[in-house]
Amino acid sequence: MLAVDEMVGSLVDELEAAGELENTYIVFTSDNGWFQGEHRIHSTKNRPYEESARVPLLVRGPGVPAGSEVQELALNTDFAPTFAELAGLEGEFGESDGRSLTPLIRGEEPAAWRSAVLLERLPSEEDGGGSGKGKGKAKGKGDKAGEDKEGKTGSGGVPKAGPGNPGPFRAVRTGTHKYVEYENGEEELYDLANDPYELENVYETADPTLVEGLKARLEALRDCSGDGCREAEDGAP
Prior knowledge:
With 237 residues, the protein is α+β, with helices and mostly antiparallel strands.
């Protein structure tokens, strides 16, 4: 992180020297998180848990209140419409699945905002052509039985389906809950308000009405596009 800090500092110095700092937005984010033992996952990414699904998003620029913090749900599909609006190019790139973050960046209260987002890991060759089954029996390193361990990692850090890894998934994340459907049929539900570290899967004991509502929202989100995504995201919390 020291190298990143120095790089950003150097960029700010250059912009200031050129007289452009007060007319420039600087956005910092990253790739999805890498597990370091959380949830007994020793080393991989592309899982539905918060450690992998959440990434930093820091913005500095004209009209951004210093030290402000926003808790609304944001997606990487929001970047294109955000940058377009900041540059005065709204509508230049056609319909987008995301929405502009500009009101949030400027400390404004949006008329409405999404209450759910889609998380997913699609099938890959490492999963045996989308079947959810890995090529061979992948076992966690250093564990002969492979129980409760992550499967071996394929290209690009994508974990293969194997012991401790149910494989591809789709999930809906709201402000209070996360519901996950794996391709192999397993399901998980976490009460994020009371269990922010996702330690207890409450799928079997949860209110059936809550589960059905989350299933419906996931179904609406999984194949949406454009305005359809915004409508699905804005559904009942």
